[in-house]
Structures are given as structure tokens and as C-alpha cells.
Amino acid sequence: MSTSLRARWNSLSPAWRSVLLDAANLDTKSPGPKALREIFESASIFLRLPSGKAPPRSFSLAPLALFPALEELQLSEGFSLASLPTLPALRRLQTDDLALPDDLGARLPGLSRLTFTPLAAHAEALAGLRVPEVEVLDGPEVDLSVLARLPALRRLVMSDGPVKQVRHLAALTRLEALDLRYTKVRSLAPLAPLTRLRELDLSCTRAEDLSPLAALTRLRTLSFFGCPKVRDLSALRGLTALRRLDLTDTAARDLSPLAALTALTSLRLDDSEVADLSPLAALPALTELGAPSTRVRDLTPLASVTSLAVLDLRSTAPRDLTPLYALPRLREVDLDEADLDWRARDALEAALRRRPRRRVTVRGPRRPLAEFSGALDAAGYAELSRRFAAGELLRESGAVYVSERCVARPGDWGYAITRMAFDEATPALTLWLDFYGEESELTLVAPRGVRVGPEEFRVKAAKRVVFRGEAQPARARTVFRLA
């Protein structure tokens, strides 16, 4: 097989070899058998030349026929499609060539995605293509009207595309998915006829009036992420097939139009103006809700959303977490940066863990070790051990806190706790830490003359923390005074 691959390699022109070596990031003029196999059996090739250079006029794409496994081809500026051979296995093509062969469909019968700059001159070439997905590259002469010549077009991506061409989308009535992110589109009127749409992404556009979307009743996924002018959601009232809705960074405040969206499973409200979750109480399918950095305080409406599994309340100030206690499917709650006491977080976690076979993750403020007082019984010591083993140690102004990412940070150093042990003779509690692959040791010791056992060992915040060793020690010893 290597002989055959070597023969293929030797049949290529010097220009082709150079382009392939660059595409494979190989710094050699004579690749070995393994490298040749990787080159010729690759499913993806990106042909490009150094900046400012162009391929020779005689450069032909005919040698692509030597790559039977090729499924994706990217051609940078300067590579002409005129010599493109028939590639039955090719699924994805991206080209900067402004001249498409009229028989492109015959050469690429299996093409499923085309990324290019559509021009009026492409009418005949597109008529013969059965490609279902197109990504538009912007250009001075781009013409989206020609896309109507694609009989099988179902998905269109034109992120950061030409906003003046959006009017031509009205003719693409077979579209099922449309991505208009970053297009600065303001009027959504051209989208009204696209009643077959199931996915629509308007993230980071200038959309404001949503009324043209009222007829798009087949929509399942809709995003207004980063659309600060979106406020009135009344046009969404009839989109009862909607499954996923993103209102992140919008001016949305009144969620009442969403009360009828009984198929909704995911809703993002991050950094919006929402404060009242009452309209969500009647959503029987809602499994994921994100409302970080909002004015939400009352969680009572969520008590009836029994399908809820994931809840994001970062950087909020919820008054009471008890409405969440009885939710049967709730398994993940994020309360990081939330304005609440660690006791509220612990109580929620305990309530959710009472149900059998429940794996629960509750992020948020953890109980500081300084809060441990009195002699720890066996259960208390076991809880402390669990926090050390599964948590995060943070030393801030001499206080030690436990949280969940299994990383200790003495000063600016990052450690992952791997194991722990109690030495009754000292007495001392020792943690073995992984410092970027090197094992370190952190020992919590009691003052001399104090006799305590593992169930009585308790740690309080030290007024003075002493490290003995180098700036990044192999062994770090920290002394904590016991009360």
C-alpha cells in the first residue's frame, strides 16, 4: 500500500506537493509512509497558499481524484473550480472562487453544504445542484436572489452577511433553518412568508418588531441573544411548537406571552429585565431555565414546574429557595455569585438529595470552615472529609472555605486534592495535592500539647497563615490554630 501511496505522491507536481505539505503542517519534502497515509486518506483538505501568493496558472484540481475518502474541501482565494474533477464522496465545499462551473452539480452529486459568494452569474450552476445547506460569504456583488434557483435548499447561514440582501429571503419559502446572526438586520418583514421555518437565529441583530414572526408557527428553536431592542414578546404567543427560546441580553420584561408555549423545554433569560416568573408556572415541558443576572427574587412560580431539571440563578438574589425543594426532576442548580447565605444552598442540596437514586449538583456559596464550632462528631467529621475530597479550598484573608471544584489555592497557587489522612499522634490532618502534575502536601496541625482525635479535630480560620518552603514548594506546611 505504501508503494501505491508513494507512486501517487510522485505523480503530483511540485506545486501540489507544497500545498499538501502545508495543509498537513508537515515540515519535510519527503513524507514517510505514515504521513502519506494521513494525507491521502484524509476526509478533509484545506488548500491555501501563503499570504500574497497565488497558485501557478497551470495549477489543476484534477489530482483531487486521488483522494477517494475526501468529504470536505476548502479552497482559498486563487484556486479555480474550472478543473475540479468528479468527487462522488464530497459532502462539503467552501470556495472563494467567484466562478462556479455550470455542471457543478454533476461533478459533486453528493454535496450537502456549499459555502460561497452567490452571484447573479451562478444561476445555471445552482439550478443543477441538489445541495440542502448554504453558507453565504459576503462580497461586493453578492446576490441572494439567485439562491431561489436551488431546489433543495432547506438551511441558510449568512452570519454577518449583507443586510441589504435580506429582502430576497422572502422567495426562499422552502427554508427550514435560517441563521442571520450579526447581520444588523432591523426589519423582519421578509421573513413572514417563511412559514416552514423550524429554526431561526437572530442573535446580535437589530431586531425590534417581532410581529412578522407571528405566522412562523412551525418554529422549534428561536434565538434573540444579544438583541437589546427586543422587548415586546406578544408576537410569540402563537408559536406553540417552540421548544427552545433564548432571550439573553434583551430588554424583555413581561413573559406573559410565553404562558401558552406548552412545548417549551429550554428558556434563557440571562441579563434580561425579567423579574416575574409567574407566566412560566403553566409550562409542563420546561426542563432548563436560565435566569442569571436578572431581577428575579420570587421562585414560587417554579414550584409547579415539575419537569424542571436544570436551573441557572447565578448573580441573582432569590428570597427563598424552598419552592425548589419538592421538584422531582431538579438535578442541577447554579447559585454562584448569588446573594444568599451558604445555609440556604446547603438546605436546598439536602432537600434534593433526599430522593432515592438522585445525582444532584448545587453550585453556590459553601460553608466556611470557620463556621465549624464545637467538637465534631463522626457525622460532622465525615461531612468535613467529603468537602475536602470533593470540594475547593480557597484561602482568602486567612480564612479557609470549602466549595466544589476540588482545587485548593494557597496564595495564587492552584492545587487539586487527591487524598487526605489524619495523624492521631501529632495530631494533624494532611492533604495530598496535585500541583500541575507534581504532588504537594498541605498539613493542618494542632498546637503542641493539645490531644484530639479524628472526630474532635476541628479547623478554624487562622489569624496568621505560615508557609514554609519555596514560592512553589514541593511540600507546603500550613499551621492552623485550633480553638
Could you give a short description of this structure?
This protein has 7 helices and 22 strands. It has 483 residues and is α/β, with parallel strands linked by helices.
Number of helices: 7
List segments where confidence is low: pLDDT < 50 over at least 5 consecutive residues: 372-381, 389-416, 446-483
Radius of gyration: 31 Å
* Count of extended strands: 22
| Mean pLDDT over the full residue set | 80
The major beta sheet can be summarized as:
15 strands, parallel
Q: First CA to last CA: what distance?
A: 75 Å
User: Strand order of the main beta sheet, please?
Assistant: 1-2-3-4-5-6-7-8-9-10-11-12-13-14-15
Question: What string gives the helices and strands in order?
Answer: HHHEEEHEHEEEEEEEEEEHEHEEEEEEE
Shape: globular
Q: What proportion of the residues is helical, as a percent range?
A: 10-25%
> How big a fraction of the residues is strand?
15-25%
Instruction: State the secondary-structure class.
Output: alpha/beta
What does this structure look like?
This protein is an alpha/beta fold. Helices cover 13% and strands 19% of the residues. It has seven helices and 22 strands. The strands form three sheets. Strands 1-2-3-4-5-6-7-8-9-10-11-12-13-14-15 form a 15-stranded parallel beta sheet. Strand 16 and strand 17 form a beta hairpin. The chain starts with a helix and ends with a strand. The model is unreliable at 372-381, 389-416 and 446-483 (pLDDT under 50).
List keywords for this structure.
483 residues, four-stranded mixed sheet, disordered C terminus, single chain, 22 strands, 15-stranded parallel sheet, alpha/beta
